[in-house]
Design a protein that fits this description.
- The protein is mostly helical.
- It is about 95% helix and about 0% strand.
- The chain contains one helix and no strands.
- It comes from Lactobacillus hominis DSM 23910 = CRBIP 24.179.
């Protein structure tokens, strides 16, 4: 009985760690990466706007 209990504990720990890893991966894909992409898009637009403004006031 002790052998089966130990195997069950190990299986439970592995399953829990796997579930946590899957949750963190999903959170990163659904929340963190879109925020980073939006920040990058805003930064690119800011740079383009600065170039356009500078170019418009030359001459």
């Amino acid at each position: 009985m002790a052998k089966r209990f130990g195997a069950g504990v190990v299986t439970g720990v592995v399953a829990t760690v796997g579930a946590l890893a899957a949750g963190l991966f999903t959170y990163k894909k659904k929340v963190v990466e879109p925020e980073e992409q939006e920040a990058n898009r805003i930064e690119e637009n800011r740079v383009k706007a600065n170039r356009k403004s500078f170019s418009a006031h030359q001459g």
